[in-house]
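User: Predict the structure for this protein chain, please.
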Amino acid sequence: MDAQQIFDTVATHLFTQGKQSRDDAHFGKCGYKTKTGLTCAVGCLIQDYYVSDMDLIQDSDIKTVYYRFKKILPEWIEGNMELLQYLQLVHDCTGNWATVDLMKESLTEVASKHNLDYSVLDKFERFG
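Assistant: Here is the predicted structure, written as structure tokens:
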């Protein structure tokens, strides 16, 4: 998976899911995957590789998770670590979920920083 595919997949996921991946199992913090099936920005990309121990890691930072579970996670993660960290921050920032425009603005900043096309955002006018 390349950076553009990652961005497009995550942006589409965030708008389609329409809410953060939070539940009581994560003590109110964001998690890669909840009991009800919600996934975060990175979680939606690693659903086929996810194990619950990933959410037990302090802060569930993608770098730490990747190096701990490197044997089961896809190699493309390592080459896109910075992009994934930024997308994870967009998901985890509760303020971004206040309006569609705020989410688009945050994702546009990430895309611009990584020289990616953000036209996928034009497809979304609401969450869910």
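Residues 10 and 45 are 8 Å apart (CA to CA).
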